[in-house]
Amino acid sequence: MPHAIDHIALMVRDPARTAALYAQLFADAVIVPGREQAAHASLVQLGGTCFVLSQGEPPLKCNGDHIALTVSKAEQMVCAAKVKSLGLECQFARGGTALYFTDFDNHVFELDAEGGGVTS
To answer: pLDDT digit string (tens) for 59-71?
Structure first.
């Protein structure tokens, strides 16, 4: 059985640009050096998970798929201001406890300030 998520791979037009965006938006994002030239990919450590940003054709549009990350309310508000300053699409939901935004390549992120995850 799986023990944890090893990595998340996303197709992006410009891996270095997307890695820089994530580093700008998230204080704990770490760009792993040395990968981008050799494999047309960038690696970013974010929230304890490795994101592999591979050069290719991203999704044509948003479809409801998203990556949800737990943050504090203060972190959520800081990120919302950064997202808006970059002109990226974003919206609050669930009474302001969730912030959804879209990166350059139609990947949707949710910043959950409640941190409860999905319950059944």
So the answer is: 999 888 999 999 9
Report residue 116's pLDDT band, with 50, 70 and 90 as the boundaries.
low
Backbone angles phi, psi at 71, to 5 degrees: -140, 165
Which tokens belong to 47?
A: 């929230």
Superfamily of domain 7-112, CATH level 4: 2,3-Dihydroxybiphenyl 1,2-Dioxygenase, domain 1 (3.10.180.10)
Q: Where are the domains of the chain?
A: 7-112
The answer to whether the beta carbons of residues 40 and 84 sit under 8 Å apart is no
50-to-96, 101, 107, 119 alpha-carbon distances in Å: 27, 19, 16, 25
Comparing CA positions, the residue from 83, 63, 70, 57 lying closest to residue 113 is: 70
Burial class of residue 60, CB neighbours in 10 A (0-12, 13-18, 19+):
exposed
